Amino acid sequence: xRLKTIQxxxxxxxxxxxxxxxxxxxxxxxxxxxxVASIGALGVNEEGISIFWxxxxxxxxxxxxxxxxxxxxxxxTNLGVSWWLGLGATILALVSTAGIIPDLVGAGxxxxxxxxxxxxxxxxxxxxxxxxxxxxxxxTVFTVACIIIIGIRGNSWEFGLLIAVPxxxxxxxxxxxxxxLVGLVTRSTVASLLLTMIFWFLVFGVxxxxxxxxxxxxxxxxxVKAIERALETERALGSDAEPVEIERLxxxxxxxxxxxxxxxxVYAPVHAVSTILPKTGETLELLERWMDDVAAMPDRFxxxxxxxxxxxxxxxxxxxxxxxxxxxxxxxxxxxxLSRSGWYVIGTSLLFEAAILTLACWIFRRxxx
Length: 369
Hints:
The protein is mainly α and 369 residues long.
């Protein structure tokens, strides 16, 4: 057991030194520093948003609407995590680590590795873990720096933001497991990087499509319920009810129920595919969801943000519904999204990753190098 631990640790140290020697590693750290500096340069005061010593006046976004610490948390989750760690830094990490597995199975290297008293599965998984090390170091440095900035600028030490470290590492691992599998099969760094980016784009497309179709499905369900309520109200009038109006509502209900069945039929297979795939976007959204004070902010920028912009029926984006307002639809969609627990989001994604890694280990063990 002690020998296995020493072997694994030696492989991790060697991989860290290899990553440390790459210029992209330090470029990524440097860019993370610039993003942290950008967050620190921004602020909020009684007049609006401040950039260094300049102030952009805004009656809708100032310290009377949003607290300093909440302002910096929003910057951290939206600018820092969603855009930098979730996009820019991820691409740099994939570029830097895409060659780890192809280099491992390259001629000369693999011959030396398999000659050592270490199982092939442990060798592959150790190399895979070292690829995650790039993301772990980068996210940890960035998050700690942001906590310091929020503590100094926002007068609030939010150590709870450290939850971003495992969340972003999980997000990155969903992509890197595919990169490792492709690199093992093709032995090409370029192919593994390119196909991983294509896979990422496909996942984004499927999940975006699911959200759009789900919006139509939920809007249709709400429209059916609204028509049923209108029909019940009309029938409750008894002898005072208008037969023509009841007949019109019944016809409208029949047509809407047919549309509702179509939405559900289309949504079912798309949802099934989305369930199997890793939840890249939803995993990053967990950070914002778990920040209670941010999630509890009414419309983030105040209760009147959407007044006269979709509060009334007739403003719905699906055909201008006369009964369902955009705000009601958005509320229903938000509630449904929150009903997907973190266990579901992370659990289904980890099942996908486990399946990919199991397949990769099987191929690595059976391949004749």
